[in-house]
Design goal:
Layout (H helix, E strand, L loop, with lengths): L3 E4 L2 E4 L4 E7 L1 H6 E8 L6 E6 L6 E3 L7 E6 L4 E6 L8 E9 L15 E2 L3 E6 L1
Parallel strand pairs: 2-11
Antiparallel strand pairs: 1-3, 3-8, 4-5, 4-9, 5-6, 7-8, 9-10, 9-11
Length: 127
Amino acid sequence: QVQLVESGGGLVQAGGSLRLSCAASEHTFSTCAMGWFRQAPGKEREFVATITRSGSTTYYADSVKGRFTISRDNAKNTLYLQMNSLKPEDTAVYYCAAAPTGSRYVYFLDTAQYHYWGQGTQVTVSS
């Protein structure tokens, strides 16, 4: 059984901040690289950020680089996405995802590489 539960979404004005959380089972968290994806209405789901199992390496989409920070607390089995300087273009449903891997040092960029997904949380940024 795999459970990924996002929280922290909401409505914020442009320039504001939100922190998303993703709670996972110990088994999922300990065996997976993690990622955040987002999907706006009428658009394809897109990569936002990823982090290795160890938490030592991260990678970001160019559109969020410098504004968003992905992190994980392996003791709490929780993934985070700190979003600062939010823009209306960031409005989307944000999904937490897990990619099983035997490596502590690999991350993934493609949706197809993630086997488990949360239900999503809505982030709306007003202008």
